[in-house]
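Build the 3D complex.
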Amino acid sequence: GGIITQTPKFLIGQEGQKLTLKCQQNFNHDTMYWYRQDSGKGLRLIYYSITENDLQKGDLSEGYDASREKKSSFSLTVTSAQKNEMAVFLCASSIGTGDTGQLYFGEGSKLTVL
Amino acid sequence: AQSVTQPDARVTVSEGASLQLRCKYSYSATPYLFWYVQYPRQGLQMLLKYYSGDPVVQGVNGFEAEFSKSDSSFHLRKASVHWSDSAVYFCAGGGSSFNKLTFGAGTRLAVCP
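Done.
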């Protein structure tokens, strides 16, 4: 089996700061995703990437940048952290070609903005 | 607009009791439907999925779900719950592309001894 590793697990930032989250997968999957999880709102798609150097915007891309420089890694940048923001960011991957819709998720990175 | 709704934010059941977690969808065509589970301090894991065919689909750990086109629902069921089933359960749906699944808000299940 494979694993998705997200770093850091906890991230505390200041208002206006640029913050970066990293994700690594060893499934050799083509497609990777970043979701934001807010209490009571489910998961919302921020960005996804179907291959190296590809980026596709999700429903919540404003205020975020993403980068997929290698097949195994996908990073997400909060361009300007908002005061009192608190959310969990989830990275996921899926096979890509022949996809069945099954996503494999990391444990999440919890962001707190002071 | 495409959507998935889980009307119950929290559900509490006794160990050994039966369980139903509700999910309603709104799609112009029959969607692909999934149930995912998030155990404490873990990532989401897929329990089961429905694409077409038999409306009752079996998943892991004794879970099953039934697709209903007439009711626009995809409810999750289990005959007898265990304390270890305590988790947050998410219903998700997708249209023509698997890359844009829509997740419901989740239902937090508490199983009491």
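The two ends of chain A are 38 Å apart (CA to CA).
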